[in-house]
């Protein structure tokens, strides 16, 4: 028995040395095992999200992967944060189901909707809904996403509306109409008569053929600021006739016919202003 022990002594000594060496190994290599992840490490496997943030990350460009994903599975059982973890303090941030519109958190400003979305929009776009509600029109009956199927995309009016004239462009529409209150037609003092002519062809034609001083005026000189505004003749001309004449003929049109064709009487011309 003793001889067998002596014979195996070198093996026992070697095994003891190996065991002691392995016991020391984790301590020597501990700094390597606990090395923290870096953003560069994330990109090695997650190249897609990194590229998306670089291209369209919006405010998310100012943070790193590890600000949202502090750990990695399996050590971190849930490393997908909730949006409310950072986005707080505004009514819009209290909405549920953020990913319904902000479909990719790595491109948060690429927002797309369904066809029946309105309420989430109202948490930010209060001025627009105020205009729609205070100025009823067909537009007020639509959902926001009926026109804006993508965030910040403004559709052309002619996608739904036939222009007043074939030459009219989107810029022309906006000279008179606001999308959220389209029935309230207002305009500046620089609108040429040709913009009015598609709807008011008779008036523009009569004015163009007139021999009176009115011929040199634009439509918006008299019909200033708001559609269907009809000024009193006295606002420009004062009261040029004696009181007795005005008393007998209280309406200017009784003598001067219509403003677009002054002093030109023809059969059927109405005797009105």
In short:
The chain has 273 residues and is mainly alpha-helical. The protein has 15 helices and no strands.
Account of the 3D structure:
With 273 residues, the protein is an all-alpha fold. The chain has a domain at 87-153. The protein is 39% helix and 0% strand. It has 15 helices and no strands. It has helices at 2-7, 9-33, 39-45, 47-56, 65-68, 119-122, 126-134, 144-147, 170-176, 193-196, 201-209, 219-222, 234-237, 243-248, 253-256. Helix 3 crosses helix 4. It is rod-shaped. The chain starts with a helix and ends in a 17-residue tail after the last helix.
List keywords for this structure.
273 residues, mainly alpha
Structure classification: mainly alpha
> How many β-strand runs?
0
Helix content: 25-40%
Our count of helices gives 15
What coarse outline follows from CA principal-axis ratios? rod-shaped
Main sheet makeup = none
Structural topology:
Layout: H1 2-7, H2 9-33, H3 39-45, H4 47-56, H5 65-68, H6 119-122, H7 126-134, H8 144-147, H9 170-176, H10 193-196, H11 201-209, H12 219-222, H13 234-237, H14 243-248, H15 253-256
